[in-house]
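Hi U.,

Before I forget, here's the chain from the pilot set. I'm dumping it here mostly so it's searchable later in email.
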Amino acid sequence: MMSSLLEALRLGAVPEGMRWLVDATLKVTVLLAAAGVATLVGRRSSATTRHLAWSLAVLGSLALPLFSLVLPSWQLRILPRRAAKPRVEVALEAPAGRESWGSRRWRSSCRSR
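Structure:
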């Protein structure tokens, strides 16, 4: 799911408002994951230190969306843009004068009711 979301962001298939929301969510996720790693590394440290790590992570996750609105954004090109795949459209209608198998079946099921 995460890779498909990043792919949609990279190809520009996400509206700008949604792009901001996804960007803030990813940043907050990284921040909370870093706090979790810091807590695991400092397992033998005092509870006060671990509480401080989580408190700073929660405060940072509350402030991060606000900062991303106020401060200028950074555009890091980590992955190159791929060209969009060409869309293939398929005609679902039967040729004129011919009924498809599905439409005959649908009509017969309507008559039997």
